[in-house]
Amino acid sequence: MSVGNNGDRVFGGALKPYRMAKGLVCYAAAMILTFFAGFPLQAAFGLWGLLYTELMILAVAIISLRVMKIRPGDALRYEAPRPGQIGGVVLMALSGYIISTCVAYASYMIRPSRFNEIGSYAKVLQSAAPAVVWLAAVFAPAVCEEALYRGVILYLFAGKDAPANDSARDAWLIILINGALFGLSHFDLSRFLPTFVAGAILAYIALSSGNLALCVLYHTLHNAIGVSAWFSGAANDAAFSVKIGQASETLLELFGATLMLSAIAIHILRIGAALIQRKKPGERPLRGGERGDAGQYSRPGRLIMSGESGKSGNPRELRNLRELGNLRELGNPREPGNPREPGIHFGNLIVISLLMITTGIICLTVRGKPVSGIANLFALW
Predict the structure, then answer these.
(1) What is the pLDDT of residues 140-157, one digit of tens each?
(2) Pair 223, 230: CB distance under 8 Å
(3) Contact assessment for residue 301 and residue 280, using Cβ atoms and an 8 Å cutoff
């Protein structure tokens, strides 16, 4: 357990209960506003109502910053991403969408009737011009929802210097809680699992990169893939309805096929996760190339203590290293008690992949169509 710069104990418990309570208050405000104002607007104005709802969510984030006296730069960290980070987000978005689709089929297996209602969503997309669809269903949710969930709420849960102040276990707990809140915010139990997965991945990106711009990019790509699929399927209403009807009878097939694809996708997700990592403070010398008091450059494993500075003695030189209080670098992740980025061991992923492939084969074999299951999947897409 470590102590944040503001004196709050960060989750080991990762944060004090009152900090988590603040985050839940912001979340509750957004949920109440969405239910009592957003849904009536969506029922009356369609996609324009959805756009108004997203703007209300953004308003909750902005008002929360003012009421709780949070500096916008602390909770909403937007930086120009590196090319490698952009590539990592693209890989994570593609693989994350496959995994979300897989868990969506698992949800529909529990309530098949909900899957048969999907065709009605196509009519919603056709209720406005394509530009409005992309604005209301792709870009607005990415900007507005990320400002609240991975911005204000995650800041209140994890603190300003997360994950530097958290152990890997603590970081995963924050990720799971944030994903669960994001899933519940969609007010649809059949959509809880896929939105939970998407929210957890987004929380991972936020904690690992410290850059909200990457979360907005992932969210935009994820929504764009879905909307593109809906547009391609909704081009012919009759054919689309038939495909949906056929798919509802072969959910086990589709689940097995996507589960096998997800066994590959989790490795692509891991590669993308490695590319988005923030630059550690120890990857470069002190600001301006200055040496510390010990006459050494900052490097992994070295503790930068409060009050240290460069040769000029100006503590502002270390602000880019988040040296506003006690800061412990990530250092060697094998050292006990040393905080680190959340991650999954490669060997565990191999085991998980084998289990997923085996389960997928069993699902397809039960249906007696080990090949047509994958064919039906691509036909539906």
Answers:
(1) 999 999 999 999 999 998
(2) no
(3) no
Q: Which of 264, 76, 107 is nearest to 183 (CA)?
A: 107
pLDDT of residue 115: 73
Q: Which residues, in sequence order, are CB contacts of 297 under 8 Å at separation 6+? A: 285, 286, 291
214 close to 89: Cβ distance less than 8 angstroms: yes
DSSP 320: G
What phi-psi label fits residue 41: left (phi over 0), alpha (psi between -120 and 50 degrees) or beta? alpha
pLDDT in tens, 61-107: 999 999 999 999 999 999 999 999 999 999 999 999 999 999 998 88
Please give the structure tokens belonging to residue 203. 């929380």
Residue 10 DSSP symbol:
P
Question: What is the token pair recorded at 37?
Answer: 């104002």
Distance CA 278, CA 210 (A): 7
The lowest-confidence range among 189-193, 318-322, 361-365, 373-377 is 318-322
pTM of the model: 0.78
Query: Pairing relation of β-strands 327-328 and 303-304?
Result: antiparallel
